Amino acid sequence: MRRLTALPTVAARKVIAAATVLPVLLGLTACLGAKPTTPGDEGGDLRYGAAPVPHPDVTLHPDVVIVSGGSGVVRSVTDGGLTWRLDPDAGNADLLAPGKVMFVTGRGVGRVIDVRRDGQDLAVTIGPVEITDVIQDGEFTSEQPVSLADAAAYQFDDAFWSHPGTATAPRSEPTATVGRAAAATVNALTLAGTRPVTAAAPLTTGAARPGELEATGFCCTDGVGARFSYRDSGLDLSGTIAFVMRQPSAKFHLVIDGSTVTVAELRIHGAAGVRVQVDATTTTGRNVHPVVFVPVDFSVPLESVLGIPFSATVRQSIGIRTGFSAGHTTIRATGEYSLGGTMGFGYANGTFGPRWPGGLQVKSSLVDSVDGTSVGANALLVDYDVKFFIGLGAVVFSAGLYVALTTTVGITRGSSVGFGGLQGLANREGCNRADLTINAKYGIGYTIPALVAKVINFFLRIFNARPIAAEGGIPDPPPVVNLVNQHWVTNRPVCQH
User: Fold this and answer.
1) Which of 474, 475, 457 is nearest to 466 (CA)?
2) 27-80 residue pLDDT tens
3) Do residues 381 and 389 make contact, with C-beta atoms less than 8 angstroms apart?
4) DSSP string across 232-266
5) 83-86 and 74-77 as β-strands: parallel, antiparallel, unpaired?
6) Are 328 and 282 contacting, i.e. CB atoms less than 8 angstroms apart?
7) Which neighbouring-strand residues pair with 380?
8) How far apart are the two ends of the chain, measured CA to CA in Å?
9) How far apart are CA 204 and CA 300, in angstroms?
10) CA neighbor of 454 nearest in space, from 55, 12, 80, 136
11) Backbone angle region of 456, left / alpha / beta, with phi > 0 → left and psi within -120 to 50 → alpha
């Protein structure tokens, strides 16, 4: 197997520079929950991923350390996926060091930021990698489309970044006495991390932790989506949004030569449309903008391809924006729009060729369904992101081929008072508008939640180390392609202006 001598990558230089301060993340993530395994747990591969197997046709990057034993040596993983607690006696575990790439399972892959003995465990905190930081040479193909219908759910309710609207980075700011401030923060968070963790098995659906915005993800037989609710500040809101799919499946091809992607293809089959339903009532007219990462990944392990345990993963987030101009307002609406085809891309000779579904048709009109009482003009927007990955990693760090869709649904309810005063209000009349926008992104690389990048970069900043990006890979930055941008207005002459 060909081995190359290489200088440390940019990512390696970043984490080496930060190795003295980022042990704080061990405490930060450990105190936020984990998913331990049980000795002899037959579900270990499902929970933590399958182990890599050396293959003569694949060369891994010289920085990669394959930890022997796969899921059997994983004792727990924090909900955020940053810290993996391993059996310290596992093969090659003693080779893990800041700057190396840990490869214990298909889900446990990342650049080592910190490694330390913690009681009976070896606690390894990882950062993001690109897939070419793991694989130096190899050609990988899924011979048949992989069904997404049987995806397993991986819960991360307690991840500190799952509610970006409420979670914050540590508040300590750098001062003239940086050493003392950093040491105090490290000590406090490490002590907090000594609390016991609890077990939780994968679930078929996932619900967000209690808070202002709650979301439950579902996937993948008939599509992928989320049910959401928000109850606070006089606002009672609930609904469902989904990217509808029929017999969803995925297929990929990837060629890496000399740590460079030379050929790639990703196809997600079965796109069928968008479905949305919302019901909102406010007594105060106060406006909100909560956001939540739907706290569950849906993943289908692929059969090992030349010893590399790839998986297909679906990740979601959702945000709500309200534009109420008056209290005692109700907005209800439901609609469905179809579009069909395959989404994905091909890449060769440095050029991308994207492929997207099309042929938008109205199956159930959102604008015609709008109902409710409205003294003034009021609006509600739902932002929904769904990302399809094939590659390595999980939860926080995923590296590989991806396509992502951002769907924004806007509902505007005009004042009913203009339609006959109180009588119009009683009859719930008014002018309505519905907007539907779908944007797409694609690429080859890694992604981490923006809040995770902020927390890590907070500590990197203390020592003037270069920050990490929330996304990396090609193209950089990923292009945004508009697939749908339409609006509909109530079919009345008075509403057409």
Assistant:
1) 457
2) 444 333 333 333 334 456 778 889 999 999 999 999 999 999 999 999 998 866
3) no
4) ETTEEEEEEEEEEEEEEEEEEEEEEETTEEEEEEE
5) antiparallel
6) yes
7) 322, 411
8) 70
9) 13
10) 80
11) alpha
Dihedrals phi, psi of 56, to nearest 5 degrees: -65, -20
Say if residues 355 and 395 touch (Cβ distance below 8 Å): no
Q: Alpha-carbon distance 15 to 126, whole Å?
A: 9
Residues 6+ apart with CB under 8 A from 106: 49, 50, 52, 301, 308, 309, 310, 311, 392, 393, 394
β-bridge pairing 64-66 and 101-103: parallel
Q: What span, in angstroms and rounded, lies between the C-alpha atoms of 474 and 88?
A: 36
Residues 6+ apart with CB under 8 A from 338: 244, 272, 273, 359, 360, 361, 363
Residue 352 token pair: 């991308």
Q: What's phi and psi for 204, nearest 5 deg?
A: -80, -30
**Amino acid letter for position 158:** D
b/e per residue 359-388 (b: at least 16 CB within 10 A): ebebeebbbbbbbbbbbebbbbbbbbbbbb
- For 392-405, write each residue's pLDDT tens digit: 987 667 899 999 99
Looking at residue 36, what DSSP letter applies? Answer: -
- Whether the CB-CB separation of 130 and 472 falls below 8 Å is answered with yes
Residue 304 in tokens: 């090992």
89/110 Cα distance (integer angstroms): 20
Asked whether the beta carbons of 383 and 437 are under 8 A apart, the reply is no
pTM, to two decimals? 0.79
What is the helix, strand, coil percentage profile of the chain, to 5?
Answer: 15, 45, 40
The span from the CA of 345 to the CA of 220, in Å, is 21
Coil, helix or strand at residue 97:
coil
**How many angstroms separate the CA atoms of 403 and 312, rounded?**
12
| Separation of CA 35 from chain center | 18
d(C-alpha 47, C-alpha 147), whole Å:
19
* Residue among 169, 137, 173 nearest 64 (CA): 137
Residues 313 and 331: their CA atoms lie apart, in Å, by 34
Helix axis angle for 178-192 and 450-462, nearest 10°, is 140
Helix (H) / strand (E) element for 191: namely: helix 178-192
Q: Which of 87, 83, 71, 86 has its CA nearest to residue 34?
A: 83
φ/ψ of 30, rounded to 5, equals -65, -30
The 10s digit of each residue's pLDDT in 424-451 is 444 456 788 999 999 999 999 987 777 7
The residues, ordered by sequence, that sit 6+ positions from 488 with a Cβ below 8 Å of its Cβ are 362, 365, 366, 367, 433, 434
* Structure-block tokens of residue 461: 């900043």
